[in-house]
Amino acid sequence: MEILWEPWQLAFMQRALIAVLLVAVLCGVAGSLLVVRRQALLGDAIAHSLLPGAALAFAVNLPLSLGAFAAGLLAAFCMAVVPQRSPVKEDAAMGIVFSAFFAAGVALISVIQKERKIDLSHFLFGNLLATTPQDLVEMAIATAIVVGAIALFYKEILFYSFDPEGAAVAGLPVRTLEVGITVGITAAVTVGMKAVGVLLVLAMSIAPGATAYLWMPRRAGGDGHGGLLAASAAWWGCTAAISSTCLRGPPLCW
Amino acid sequence: MLTIENLTAGYGAVPVLAGVTLAVEGGLTGIVGPNGAGKSTLLKAMVGLMPATGQVWYGGQPLERQRERLAWVPQRSQVDWTFPATVWDVVMTGRIRPRSWLRPLTVVDRRRAIAALERLGMAEYRDRPIGRLSGGQQQRVFLARALARESEILLLDEPLVGVDRPTEEVMWSVLRELAAAGKTLLMVHHDVGMARNVFDRVLLLNRRVVAWGEPEQVLTAANLQEAYGQALAAA
Predict the structure, then answer these.
(1) Fewer CB in a 10 Å sphere around the end CB: N or C, chain B?
(2) What ipTM was reported for this prediction?
């Protein structure tokens, strides 16, 4: 039994757990939105697109999450604009944009690696055990803002997600809602990136949302339960991770 | 008075619908015409859901700026019925107004929603997920939402397609009640034969206005032939 609680006496493990719990709540809630809006892969596409932003920020000594967030927003903007301005369909546009961003990110990191020591796998799979107190503060603020905004505008978001045309006819500012939801999801995957990396953050978002979807007939429950489920899974994931010798990120995504 | 002035709508160079002009003061107006005549397009263009030129006025003001006076009943096939929402969630969206961002829904909102559900015989289904309703029940929920909105104008896109007989009856009675109360209802309808008996006015479309006015003046053999071609006029 000792193996279950022994790791938690270490400070870095405690920080890792808090980080994962925050990510679980944030990505679980934002991910539930992705699931019900049938945009599960949009989250993945945005997550992959964070890479060049994080790399650039690292190169010029800015906070990684700031660069990653900006790149995610730019990618989301491109994915929205390309299908509107050209005959290219949404899914194709998404594929083109995120693979281009991701490729640029890998290329940038390999260039930066020549000058400074940096490990690509920290971006791809996260570096949870290196979570600093400063990181925790940033994660907590992002979680509070995004979850708070979703709670505050819940009825409008529900209306728009279920019936976008009806919401537009009713006079809701649908463009603002769409942008707001996208910014929230980008913030969620950016925070998630720190814990589990750009490749696997989708699992933190979609799996809890989808599980909640199976359990709950309505999203009112779905959102909250997504967060709770993710949080409980995070505990077991963390414990399993430290007990084994594998990378820290992947076990969380099971 | 709801006024449409020279409304032209479509995505490409050739408009789906051209130069629609008419004025309606209350009552139940049926929009009929062949497939591809632009019936749904007219409704969508009126509320800005597709690119259009021309004006739509209500009470001397652009309809655009009076969305709270408008209710929209979409075609059933346009809605994602697997969405995890209950009947109650959907009806309550009818009470959401523009500029009410941080206002929680009130007791009045709840009362209106309950009354609307009761009127359509759906009160006992309020906690049921919408995906587990029959086609007729789904359509009742959407009419209940429009009713809960307490709007002056209702735009309905084929609300009676694929519904069962009892639903059709209760929906007609609600629509007539609203028309009698002075509301303006525009409703796309597929059944021309029925249109003669149920509407106060009929708009016959085929990518433009073929005829508009009292049913017996509009639904003449000559007009129907112009709109539908030989086949239907002969039948």
Answers:
(1) C
(2) 0.90
